[in-house]
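The material for today's practical consists of a large collection of protein records. Getting from the letters to the tokens is the skill we practise here. To make this concrete, we reproduce a full record directly below:
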Amino acid sequence: MNRLLLSSLQRRIFQAALLLNGVLIVSTAFVLFLSASETTVTRVEEDLARYWRTTYDIVVRPPGYRSQVEEEYQLVQPNYLLSIPGGITFAQYEAIRSIPGVEVAAPVATLGYWTIALQQAITRSLPEGVYALRCIQEEDTGLYVYRDVQDWYYLSYSDPAGELLRIPLEKRVGLIPIPSCIFSLEGLLAGVDPDAEETLVGLSHALLEGSIMTQTRTTSDMVFVPVIVNITPFVSFTLTVEAIPVEVPPETRGINDILQQGGFVYLNTLPRRPLFTAETRIAEEVYPELPRMIIQQVGLASGALHFPKSCVQYHLLFSSALPQRNSLVLEMEVVKPCEGVHRPLRPFVSHVVGTFRSDKLGLSAEGLTMVPLELYFPPQITLLYDENGTPVAPKVIRPSTLQITTTLYFHPPPLLLTTLEAARAIAGDDCISAIRVRVA
């Protein structure tokens, strides 16, 4: 009997222990589940906060640069920054930065556009003779394809003394010393505060080499401006050089004979053979080479900077209930000449200290958190209606940078960035074009 009671008691103790262990396991699992849920909720809240946070909250511009459409509908138009040649002083910048609750105030000084020469040579060896070089420059903006063609002549003769070089420069009418074409590209120079840009967008993450923190060097008559080059190709163009042999009579040999016959005019009358060779480069191949090209051109100088000859103004046509959102249908008008102050600049010379790519910043250029980030990305513009207001198949319009374009709807981001210190040294105390403000 005692043995039976003892056996029964042992079974009940064992069952109670199993039950207690089960309760402990379930309790622990429940606690872990609650903890994981709280962690998940916290992470979701953090992700949502990041998603809804804009890069900056307020943009400050000089008086007179807010359009009627912006005033009426509380909007900021694309490319609001790139045609403002300053107007905000450093004292005003310091006043904004010292306002309680301002996390960062990031100023931008738009200094002007510079025309960069793009030389493209024929790399294939040309047999002896005379060649017509056809320089073809095309740019696709998504709305139009612009095409410009120029013809030159190149003489390929085996004169070891370099016959072409002995001819006075003023007599080389229509002739070039090497088989190449010269194209052009427009690049904007802008000044920023490196510390503010790092806080606002993390500019160092986009740097491929070098640093924008290089100090500006100033002498009594010159400012040496450090620049970093944006090698992100936001435009779409092709540069083509064609070499076409010209049938020159046997009795005509050398540049002296050609000049005596009439030079360029004479060569235009001669028949041409089929295309010998053609070489083409696209924007994606050209942009990585821009730092080297700028260095070869001894940087840029103050006299070469200019502002756009045309600007875009927006006029409201009508409101439209497009899918998923209400939109304003705006008409874009190209105004020539562009209004703005062409400020005098102190003489300066630039030197390349680094390169960067905008697409490495990891910023949101679209969606609900989109604000104009035109220092690093072009505005997103889609053509939805024709000039009569009739819906058309959507076309994404790309920025334009080549001089062949006659209608510039908007420009790409600055090609060259320098420091705010350098901008102040060459453009004066009121060189700041806009200030992007993020509140705490």
